[in-house]
Amino acid sequence: MSDLFEKIVSLSKRRGFIFQSSEIYGGLSATYDYGPLGVELKRNVTQRWWNAMVHRHQNISGLDAAILMHPTTWKASGHVDAFSDPLIDDKTSKMRYRADQLIEGHIDRLRRKGKDEDADRVYQALVDALNAEDSAKGLYDVIMGEEIRSPDSGMFDWTEVRHFNLMFDTTVGPVSNPDNKIFLRPETAQGIFVNFHNVRETGRHQVPFGIAQIGKAFRNEIVARQFIFRMREFEQMEMQYFVKPGSQMEAYEQWREERMQWHLDNGIRASKLRWHEHEKLAHYADAAQDIQYEFPIGWQEVEGIHSRTDFDLKAHQEYSGKKMEYFDQQANEKYIPYVVETSVGLDRTILTLLCEAYREEELEGDSRTVMKFHPRLAPITVGILPLVKKGGMPEFAHKIENELKDHFNTFYDEKGAIGRRYRRMDEIGTPFCVTVDGDSLEDSTVTVRHRDSMQQDRIAADQLAGFLVNEISGWKAS
After folding, report:
1. Where are the domains of the chain?
2. At CA 457, angle to CA 455 and CA 463, rounded to 5?
């Protein structure tokens, strides 16, 4: 883990963004709890996504499907037979790794050394292995042929590559037997597909239309490391867009453009984002690309855009015996719609924002740690700070706080020197601090201090809300 990544993990705990789950009992691997600031950041992200996907599109409706589903759902979707990771063990350190990610890391190292021809050769070998009939053997052969060593021990002493299914199973009812076995959903998409007709009919939708939802999913990740990047319990924000067969590529490109812009509008620098095309398409897809962010741990996927064809609806029609066709009145024809999916990890988005916002800045004889969140996403928008705890300043400050609460998430702080309070607000990403001083009681003006520039403006107290709205609207990432 890089030094920068460790600093971000440390700040996340120290300031109440993210805690290790069940920490008093030693913690539970790859599970985390969102603290007071983390849950505010999370809610701001989900609301921004919901506004972008549902409220701004008349032909997209929301859904909140159950986590537990009929077990045949996962047989139809292919998860029972094909939802697995290719894993390999280092015999020396006893650490387990994703075989394909080991090879991708090797390719990245070759490119950093300027060995592009070798990197291209290994990349092609990886693609061939992933698409081979026996992909486990193909991946093992690449690792052996390239003599890829363990990242932890540095040794070249591997087991064979094996596939592990990632679904959690449980039982329904008081008796534990195979007939009662069900699964915790490994993705949220299938809840959308089985409700295709329910949402279409009640929403009075015509193709093309979409169904969006935010929800928990569960994967028994064998290799679960790197903080909240890869967890066993995580949240997805997904939208399935149903289109007429033959029009899927047009919709695919539309959503690729729209989803990349959403990340940019969150304040992510364009230089930190890129597209990554899948080396191997899933069994249901005819096109797939990921939006990747350059984390301190390297380039990693944040969101996937997939053209899923008609696989899912056709499979559920076959296994359920229920028609999943759509009747197009204008064309006077029936067909099973194709699907374009946008699927973004909520936890990975949070991690992206934490990494993107983190800054260490040297000032004149001093330094500060500052989280430069987009003001619309920051857990706290405005800090209210009376200069001292007397002379009527706290009362005036509380009055301002009450007036701003209807518009922004505020935080009142009167403890400690004003400089230290500014630093605390910087470290949790509060974009504006309003300071009440002696002059405020005389002329009803306050000082607004800007997090990013540390510039201060003197503003009439009754104009604060409008001033802050304008500043937020004009904010640009730096």
Report:
1. 3-71+182-354, 84-165, 380-473
2. 140
Count of helices and strands (H, E) across the chain: 16, 23
Q: In whole angstroms, give the CA distance from residue 383 to residue 468.
A: 12
Reduced to 3 states, what is the DSSP secondary structure of residue 112?
helix
Q: By CB neighbour count within 10 A (0-12 exposed, 13-18 middle, 19+ buried), where does 19 fall?
A: middle
pLDDT by residue for the chain (478 residues), tens only, comes to 579 999 999 999 999 999 999 999 999 988 999 999 999 999 999 999 999 999 999 999 999 999 999 999 999 998 876 677 788 989 998 888 889 889 988 998 998 899 999 999 998 999 888 878 788 899 999 999 999 999 889 999 999 998 877 888 888 876 666 667 899 999 999 999 999 999 999 999 999 999 999 999 998 876 666 899 989 999 999 999 999 999 999 999 999 999 999 999 999 999 999 999 988 787 778 999 999 999 998 899 999 999 999 999 999 999 999 999 999 998 999 999 999 999 999 999 999 999 999 999 988 778 899 999 999 999 999 999 999 999 999 999 999 999 999 999 999 999 999 999 999 999 999 999 999 999 999 999 999 999 999 999 999 999 999 999 999 999 988 7
Helix, strand, or coil here: 358?
Answer: strand
In the block, which residue shows the tokens 């280092």?
A: 90
Q: Are 288 and 278 in contact (CB under 8 A)?
A: yes
In angstroms, the CA 312 to CA 310 distance is 6
The fold adopted by the segment(s) 84-165 is Herpes Virus-1 (3.30.40)
Instruction: Tell me: cis bond preceding 208? Omega within 30 of 0 counts.
Output: yes
Tokens 């099973």 found at? 336
Q: Where are the alpha helices (DSSP H) in 147-240?
A: 189-193, 196-202
Q: Please tell me the CATH code under which domain 380-473 is placed.
A: 3.40.50.800
Residues 107 and 241: their CA atoms lie apart, in Å, by 34
CATH architecture of the region 3-71+182-354: 2-Layer Sandwich (3.30)
Buried/exposed 388-412: b ≥16 CB within 10 Å, e otherwise: eeeeebbebbeebbeebeeebebbe
Indicate the helix (H) or strand (E) that contains 242. Answer: strand 233-243
CA pair distance 199, 189, nearest whole angstrom: 14
| Residue 85 exposure: Cα atoms within 13 Å on the Cβ side | 18
Please work out, in degrees rounded to the nearest 5, the angle formed at the alpha carbon of residue 288 by the alpha carbons of 345 and 310. 100
